[in-house]
Design goal:
By secondary structure, this protein is an alpha/beta fold. 25% of the residues lie in helices and 16% in strands. The chain has helices spanning 28-33, 60-68, 102-115, and strands at residues 5-7, 13-14, 20-22, 35-36, 42-45, 72-74, 99-100. The two termini are 17 Å apart.
C-alpha cells in the first residue's frame, strides 16, 4: 500500500489526493486557510509548540482536526528531521513514540516504519 503525504506550508494548495496532510505547527491557521481538498484525511501532528498556540483548543492536533475532521495522531516530534539522514549510520535505530486515534494508527505506524 502506498501512502501519499502532501506537505503544505505557507502557500497552501490542493490536498485532495493526500492520504496524510502535514502542516508546520506554527503555521496551522495560516496554512490551512490556503489548502483545498481537505476531507477527513489522517492528520499527523509532527510539531512541538515553539510559539503561543490558540488557547481555544487543547493541542495543535486538536486544532488541525477541527479543520480537517479526520483521525489524528501525534508522531515524528521526538526525532528531529535532520537526524533522518543519519539513521543508517546509527548503531541503534532511534525510536519514535506516537499516539493515534484508532483510524490513524495503521497509517502512522506505516510511515514511521517507512522512515526507518
Amino acid at each position: 500500500m502506498n501512502i501519499t503525504v502532501i506537505r503544505r506550508g505557507r502557500v497552501g494548495g490542493d490536498a485532495s489526493a493526500a492520504d496524510v496532510v502535514d502542516v508546520p505547527g506554527h503555521l496551522i491557521g495560516e496554512a490551512l486557510r490556503g489548502v483545498t481538498g481537505l476531507n477527513g484525511q489522517v492528520t499527523i501532528d509532527t510539531t512541538n509548540p515553539s510559539t503561543e498556540r490558540d488557547g481555544a483548543v487543547p493541542s495543535l492536533a486538536h486544532q488541525v482536526k477541527s479543520v480537517i475532521g479526520g483521525p489524528t495522531a501525534k508522531a515524528f516530534n521526538t526525532v528531529f528531521a535532520s537526524a533522518y539522514e543519519l539513521i543508517g549510520e546509527q548503531r541503534l535505530t532511534p525510536s519514535n513514540l506516537y499516539a493515534a486515534e484508532p483510524d490513524a494508527k495503521d497509517v502512522t505506524a506505516r510511515l514511521i516504519g517507512d522512515a526507518g
